[in-house]
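Final paragraph of the annual report: two paired records, presented back to back.
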Amino acid sequence: MKIIVGIYFVILLIVPILPENLPYKNDIFVSILSVLLLLQLYLILFPRFKREKRIYDIKQIFKEKSIIFLSLFSLISLASLFFSSNILIGLKKYWLFFTIIPVPIILFILVKDSIVREIFIYVSLISSTFLSIWGICEYYGIIPYSLSEIYRSRVSASFSNPNHFSSYLSSTFLLLALYFLQIKNSKYKLIFMIILCLIYSNILYSETRGVWISLIIAIVFLSFFIIRYSFYIVKKNKYWLVSFSVLLILITFIYSYPTPIRHPKSISVTERLSSTSEILDMSSTKDFSLKERLYIWEIAFKMIENSPALGVGWGNFKESFKVVRNLLYTNPEFLNRFPPNIFKNIKEHAHNEFLHIGAESGILSLIFFITFLLFLFLKLKKVNYTRSEFNILFIIGIMSCTLTILVHGLVGYPLHILPTALNFWTFTAFIIVNYYRKVYQRTKEKPDNSSVLFFVL
């Protein structure tokens, strides 16, 4: 099991660092995860020692509602493949998306959670620090800029798109910020704070409005729980927290107005945010990213309208996009709003995770996915308060990070970007397993892994 844990966290470390456009990158790493999944299944079915054998009662599944709805979501998505125009493409994309879900859930049930928690935090810290240094060097021209001129000075490091880069960095930022509070050594605390400021700067460099907004919402969510429960660790570190907050405000100010530190080609934070209202003007062609999203969303809604039950088939969004778009172009009103000479690209994603799921696998699948998320967040009421204070903060931090990804998922597709998807499903595994263990501590029963076994199958 230690080898499986090691391999999983090496994957979490390497995947974001390697170039996103590396040929067969996703295929290779998901293949490794598939092997880990088979090994985990073997360990559950055939324990090394007879005394470790457990009876797998299928009724146990009903004690974990989030896994029920996650399983139903995956089953309906699988069924949608039989109604797709290209079942082979759908099967591959289904494999790429769903293989990574059960691996961390089983892993954290079979391994002591305090160990994997610490490893995950340091893996996230190392990868985010490396990428942030890469981003800084890219921003100031120390290393060659990896993206085309259309992105101006927006940094991306190993990613093919600044949005993917900032989505990954923001996915663990709040968790790392909370971990910073529990460090006791002042010297290490100062280094950690500098690293966090470096990561935050790169989130600003990316000029990704969706990520900025999602991070603000997650900070408000996190602040609510910190204020409500008056954590001692927060009170103890109030001067560090104030200093850190001031530094973040100062960095935001530096990149909001012309300063020697700011890249001459970059758009300031205030300009980037204010441009959100300007791009609603359909006559403007300077920045039409939101208009393009409206165009994609309208086509996605039409896909759902045409195939509400099981969608167009998992992984077949791109294939159906052109067909539905051509159908909508017979409507003069749509043609006038979205001229084909400007809006001509065939899109692979809906730029909204919920719309994408609804379009590809139908409304029922979307309902199951949303219900899974609701049960996930309802677990905040059932956090194991018998453990250390940092354990509570850790789970709330994980919830905040999950919220960051989901809010960005309203205008992007972070669950289809492997590094961010790995983080998201690792977060959900932490949340589910924390509640799973709490139930059995209360009932004094040995954990029965039947629900997990059912989910894997």
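The closing record of the year follows.
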Amino acid sequence: MTAVYLAAKLLTFPGAFLKAFWEHCILKLLRVPVEDASFLHLNELFGHIEHSLIEGKAKNMLFCMLPGLINGLLSVPLLFTSSVNLFYLGVGMKDAVTGLTNIMFFVYVIMFWVGMSLWCSKYPLYEDALQLKEKLHSEDAGRAKKALSAAPVAVITAGSLLERYGINVLLFAGATAALVYLFPYAFV
């Protein structure tokens, strides 16, 4: 565990907490025993649930995809609304007409932060992604299954590797900096 990973997870704790909640719910639905139900550890399990080995390809795929998909779907309206208002419409701290403090600016900043934390907490633990890759690309899997699952498994594995080192938050910060550069009047 690196310091960047811990800082990234602490920065995105709402998304990490919600991701762990969704993982816990999915594990209960799939009837997989949960070993440690606490959501926020100060180690590599921050935002993940410690569980027993998941048997079956379909259960493994559901566990690896559904919590992140739910987090991703919840983040889209938050990110879209806040990004349009902050970066495109240029809602600033001060009202342009009256010069008073604009409360909606702070609402949009909080929406952007929560949306960012949900977006950056989409991927499973790296070990779970590797287990999914192993199960879906085993020798007993057919060629068609291997071909159809190659792209999603590659995205999940790469995303969980990026999340493992906190690089996903750095990439999101770079994308945000690009938006600020493209729309320089945003934080005026």
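The chain has a mean pLDDT of 84. This concludes the annual technical report; the extension proposal builds directly on these records.
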